[in-house]
Specification:
The chain is an alpha/beta fold. The protein folds into 3 domains: 1-107 and 286-372, Isopropylmalate Dehydrogenase; 124-141 and 181-277, Rossmann fold (3-Layer(aba) Sandwich); 145-178, no CATH class. It is 40% helix and 17% strand. It contains 13 helices and 12 strands. It has helices at 14-29, 42-48, 54-61, 76-81, 97-104, 151-160, 184-200, 218-230, 243-252, 264-277, 315-328, 331-347, 361-370, and strands at 4-11, 33-37, 65-70, 109-115, 129-135, 145-146, 177-178, 205-210, 237-242, 259-262, 285-289, 294-298. It has a 10-stranded mixed sheet with strand order 2-1-3-12-11-4-5-10-8-9, with helices on both faces. A two-stranded antiparallel sheet has the order 6-7. Strand 11 (285-289) and strand 12 form a beta hairpin. The longest helix is centred in the middle third of the chain and has 17 residues, at 184-200. The two termini are 25 Å apart. It binds 3-isopropylmalic acid and magnesium ion. The site of magnesium ion has 2 residues, from helix 10.
């Protein structure tokens, strides 16, 4: 029996293009693994009313980890309108399957390295090496939302928060509420993983990026827990910043920062900004990591207009494969893959259009595989 069972979930649009690229590299790496295909994406929403069918969840339970491509997401009403007629009007609600997977499998770390590889013409600076730890299961993406807000919920809020008084006159259909839910456990574990990573990889600082001066309770909890955890890591300094100032400083002095830890939505936003500093989403990979399962993905979306054209940069996906190898403990293979990626970037011969070249997605993957 192979050592690993790895699910491949290409999903929608260019998810398929970059998954093909990943397979070229995986073939060359020759892990002791069995690869299984899993259904996920818009097609399954349209035809089955669920973008994440139960059979996929069951299959993932039997896997070591998974590689995911990309998913098309649309707002509530558009999603409903695209269902096959027999599924319409049944109250089916579309929720992003990747967000659901993160919550379902308690993949509480979203690890997003943003490193400038030498020779990448898209680098903002060449000395950037940031690693973002985004909390991945709670915060504003908890899914506890109301529109309209039920009277009972409103009454409880009014009874317990004087700040609600300002909204007392707002009509029912004119009020929407999305809850930003933080738990002490959620804050502790993401901060601890960030510190452990900093220590293991020789980074001297961890910056907790929040907004405790305004969002006192949730951001406040994160920062207070960060201070407690920092005490266990005397070699790593804790820096505290507000998210608005942090994005400005990331544009001004990105080389000053190393490990950043933050909540779900701030991490979503800050990681896109950080990705752009090192070449854009074509270079941004993510590890959704829990205690015993993980899903690796490029951070980019499904880019429907490029689907099937094998035009997009597969580097983000190949870097996601590298993160997967790290997580599996296949350190040598991970390092070899990173060197091969860095080599192709530095050589500058095989490049997709975003880097000013005309190579295809698969040609880039082949060039990386040849260096392995
Ligand atoms: C990301 C994406 C997802 C997110 C979307 C597609 C739900 O933006 O991985 O950063 O918001 O987490
Ligand atoms: Mg995002």
């Amino acid at each position: 029996m192979p050592k690993y069972r790895i699910a491949l979930m290409p999903g929608d649009g260019i998810g398929n293009d970059v998954m093909d690229a990943a397979q070229i590299v995986l073939d060359k790496i020759a892990l002791d693994a069995e690869y299984v295909h899993a259904d996920i994406g818009w097609e399954f929403w349209r035809t089955e009313g669920d973008a994440l069918p139960q059979r996929t969840v069951d299959l993932l339970k039997g896997c070591t980890c998974a590689l995911f491509g990309a998913i098309t997401s649309k707002p509530k009403d558009e999603a409903e309108a695209e269902l096959i007629p027999e599924l319409r009007g049944k109250g089916l609600v579309y929720r992003s399957p990747i967000v659901r997977l993160r919550q379902l499998f308690d993949l509480y770390v979203n690890l997003r390295p943003c490193k400038a590889y030498p020779g990448n013409p898209l680098n903002y600076r060449d000395d950037i090496d940031l690693v973002i730890f985004r909390e991945n299961t709670e915060g504003l993406y908890s899914g506890v939302e109301f529109h309209p807000v039920p009277q009972a919920v409103r009454e409880v809020l009014e009874a317990h928060s004087p700040a609600m008084a300002r909204f007392a006159d707002v009509a029912e259909e004119d009020l929407a509420i999305s809850c930003r839910i933080f738990t002490r456990r959620g804050c502790r574990r993401i901060v601890r993983r960030a510190f452990e990573y900093a220590q293991a990889h020789g980074y001297s600082t961890v910056t907790v990026v929040e907004k405790p001066n305004v969002i006192r309770e949730t951001s406040g909890l994160m920062v207070r827990e960060a201070r407690r955890i920092a005490a266990d890591f005397p070699d790593v300094e804790l820096w505290e910043t507000n998210v608005d100032a942090q994005v400005m400083w990331l544009v001004k002095n990105p080389q000053d920062y190393s490990v950043l830890v933050t909540s779900n939505m701030f991490g979503d936003i800050v990681s896109d900004l950080a990705a752009q500093l090192v070449g854009g989403l074509g270079f941004a990979s993510s590890g959704n990591i829990g205690d015993d399962f993980a899903i690796f993905e490029p951070t980019h979306g499904s880019a429907p207009k490029y689907a099937g054209q094998y035009k997009v940069n597969p580097m983000a996906m190949l870097l996601a494969v590298k993160l997967m190898l790290d997580w599996l403990g296949e350190r040598e293979k991970a390092q070899a893959l990173e060197s091969a990626i860095a080599g192709v970037i530095a050589e500058g011969k095989v490049r997709t259009y975003d880097m000013g070249g005309s190579s295809t997605t698969l040609e880039v993957a082949q060039a990386v595989a040849e260096r392995l």
